[in-house]
Fold this sequence. Notes:
Elements: H1 2-40, E1 42-56, E2 69-84, E3 87-102, E4 121-136, E5 143-153, E6 158-161, E7 166-167, E8 178-182, E9 188-201, E10 204-217, H2 221-224, E11 233-235, E12 238-239, E13 242-258, E14 263-274, E15 283-293, E16 298-308, E17 314-317, E18 325-329, E19 333-345
Antiparallel strand pairs: 1-2, 1-19, 2-3, 3-4, 4-5, 5-9, 6-7, 6-8, 9-10, 10-13, 11-12, 13-14, 14-15, 15-16, 16-19, 17-18
Amino acid sequence: xxxRKLTLALILLSVFLSAQNDDKARVATLTKALNQERKEDxxxxxxxxxxxxxxxxxxxxxxxxxxNRLGFGGAVTFFAKYKKNLLxxxxxxxxxxxxxxxxxxxxxxxxxxxxxxxxxxxxxxxLRLSSRLGYKTSPNSKFSYAADFGFISQLTPTxxxxxxxxxxxxxxxxxxxTDLVAKLFAPAYITFAxxxxxxxDPTLSFFLAPFGYKSVIVADRDLARLNIHGNKWxxxxxxxxxxxxxxxxxxxxxxxxxAKEKISYTSRLTLFSNYLNQxxxxxxxxxxEFGFNISKAFQISIWTNMFYDHDVKxxxxxxxxxxxxxxxxxxxxxxxxxxxxxxxxx
Length: 346
């Protein structure tokens, strides 16, 4: 009888302790979740930078060898995100730059232009900023009231040569003369739109604004006169420094990782239709980035951009022309860049 009572007491004690352990586990899980929620509130920021370099030096090169080459470029990205209860504020920015110098010595062969050294050519120069302020309709809702802002321009001046190449500086020789064609805020593309942000899951989001504002700014009269950047233009003596547009804006973003987070893919699509002028000509800006992790922080990154704006003229590629360019016109623009990146959270 005593043995039975002792056994029953031990069983009850084990059940009680087990229940206590289960309660502790549940409390620990709940506490962890609450701490995680508190961690998500406030600011989180980070960024990354990538380098693209190519160098070749030859002194007294062998017959049949090519030119010296020095090329370097990079991409800098950053983000700053804020969360407080139902309020979110996401900010991102990027800057892509690439220049190359082919050959050494002077560019001109005559004494009159002997001081013109071999110039740097420009491959890419693009500054992007975006910001979105959102307020959720409820804690568990996938919809938010939002306002979206976007900005695209370039940071340094670009000079177009008569050989259809883009240079970092202005110069003139017997065969090549360069003129300024673009600089910071000439042109600049600005969008602002209130709308609805829909996030069905953490990897995917859609922003829709039935009525959004887009402005093309060319803050230089000489550049606005060229009629290539999308500002309102009638003739070389009748033009404006900007063009204001009202239309529908749609933005889609996808960001996911695969293969145990060794491969990442980010896609950002922006579509804009100008209700005031040929709404069927939809502006397109589509960025894709594929990342392949080398280590925890380093990755090989492939970045592409497809761009089309019916009001903006681009350099038309033609491999049968000098410099590979045949003037300017309305075309789909495609850019690709290969980088070794270093990413960080701070």
